[in-house]
Amino acid sequence: MIAVILICIGVLFNIFGCIGLIRLPDVYNRLQSATKCVTLGCCSILLGAAFHFGIGDAFFKSLLAIPIIFFSSTVAAHALIHGAYHFGAKLDKRTVKDDYKDSVK
Amino acid sequence: MKYITLFILSLVFWLLLTFKLTLPNIIVGTVASGICALFFGRFFITNVYKLLQPQRYFWLLVYLVVFIWECIKANFDVAYRVLHPAMPIKPGIVKVKTTLNSELARTLLANSITMTPGTITVDIIGDNLFVHWIYVRSDNPDVYTRMITGKFEKYIKNIIE
Amino acid sequence: MTELLNILLYIQIGLSGVCLYRIIRGPTIPDRMVGIDIFGILVVGICAIIAILTERSFILDIGIAWIILSFIGTLTLAKYLTGKKLNE
Question: How many domains does chain A contain in total?
């Protein structure tokens, strides 16, 4: 039962993340909403899978997948936002502050 | 010494991932961990004796509790901004100074910042972290430095340095 | 309970369709890459739900392999972005 509740919470967070992917105006804000929500949503789904299978091989596989998914998604988001800035993607017109422009050439 | 530590850690990881204690499995795991340790051992942490100090694990637990709470808060923050009809965003890139010294501590700090409400790390140059913030709450550098890094810095200092 | 899990599986597959929309329609190249990154993470959730529905644990292995490959692919794409300017 607790597994199904955790999976429902995870899918709900995934829905929020994908709505953000559609609605937000520029690439930086899309990356923010999508990375946070989808990472925590998938971690919650894997935790639900671990609770469903009980102690055994699937339990350890699910629990080991959580740190892997966590570190890989944060590092990938960092690399993507760095690449997007150097590529020259425009910041949205509501942006109020850009300290990074002075430091990089 | 650090090659041996990395070898043991990878072997434990392999055995947990496959979860079978047969002889061919252990042989394959030993060979694979040996290759991993040989190639990536020089990137591993230099002072491996820090892994044996128990107070670091206590601070790691405290840090994990704080961190998971911040993660959940971040998700509700993003959900509020996305579902609001007018989308209350005020994005900007701010410069934040850090006092951490080692590379591993800075990486962990950058990853933590990426998962906290509304912030994502863009780059690290010298002592400065550049952070993209979805709603810039303040113009004063001292105030936003405390808001972004203040929660995690003391725990990470206790864990790693 | 199986019906609920089926519905959640279909919702998850629909969310990957949303990512495909962003990949196809994205106005700039970084937008498409964000879509690819998020798609890779969503597939792991699909794998976990299928593993529960079929009671077979090897599908979780597929998920772990998928997330590592997707991570390496995203890093390569980000490297490609860094080395290329719009005015070239």
Answer: 1
